[in-house]
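URGENT: need a sanity check before tomorrow's submission.

F., can you look over the Alkanal monooxygenase alpha chain record below? I want to be sure the sequence and structure line up before it goes out.
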Amino acid sequence: MSFEIGIYHFGELTPDPHSGAPAPSAQQRLKDLIEQAEVADQAGLDIFGLGEHHRDDFAVSASAVVLSAIAMRTSRIRLSSAVTVLSSEDPVRVYEQYATLDNLSDGRAEMIVGRGSYVESFPLFGYDLSLYNDLFEERLQLLDRIQKENPVTWQGMLRPPLEEADISPRALQEYIPTWVAVGGTPASAVRAAKFGLPMALGILGGRLDGFKGMADLYRKSAADHGVDPAKLKISVNGPGFVAETTQEAQEFSYPYYARAMKENQHMQGRGQVLQYEAYQEHASDDGALFVGSPQQIVEKILRQHEAYGHDRYIMQLGYGNTPQRETLRAIELLATEVLPAVRQELG
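Structure tokens as predicted:
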């Protein structure tokens, strides 16, 4: 498989720090996302993902529904959650939703599943946050079982048992690609390896090669559990922006990124204040923030590949609600300048 590049979005609803315009409506943001996916599909990107949040400053709480609408307007791009908070979701329902998406998209569905860094879904759906880790472990086991057999007989500790349960419709793909989202917790990398599932590294800051130890641990743990590390894939996911020059990319995107860091973090309106100099440092050649010209993004992906040996890079494009016109241009630059250059270098 050639190296893959894609984008994902959380559907933020934040005011524009440049113009002072109010946040877009949820209706407008959802239409914007469909247009972004269409352009990404036509331009040649490989993956389009949507996150899941359950607050009034995000438009997407039902990723599979929006991705299904996108499936009807695209033809080749793979469609993924980014991420499904599996700890507060019923695996049966998750499979039904993504199997439906898989049928509508002619076999293009994927999932990235995780425990969730935002935790508003736990009280909303009646789950005990103290079971944060246990819920994910058990539900990942059940989701894996559902993908591999039908009907399903299963019993766990945190969900009623299933007895010869017919879970339909079945996906077109024999197994919907399911990536485990991993942040900075080593146990999460070990878990992904134990299940033999690809790992999606979410990297929000630090050094470009700062997660090399996590990639090494993942592959070592796979071997320890009898899984061939060569058969496992790693994705690097994180915020970024692309413009014709590095200076333009940084100067344009900084106010949006800083606003998002302040307003759209876990403690609404009480997030981190990010100075421009710190933003530039994160976006430097050695930083993990992918903000720059196409050539700089190419060079950073290649340098990161030397450290991680990863198989795909997915940019959280437009972090902080960058305007649609500039976001669409960034998609084109990623597809027509970054992706071909990376593939040529990696052979």
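My own read: The two ends are 10 Å apart (CA to CA). The longest strand covers residues 234-242. If you see anything odd, call me.
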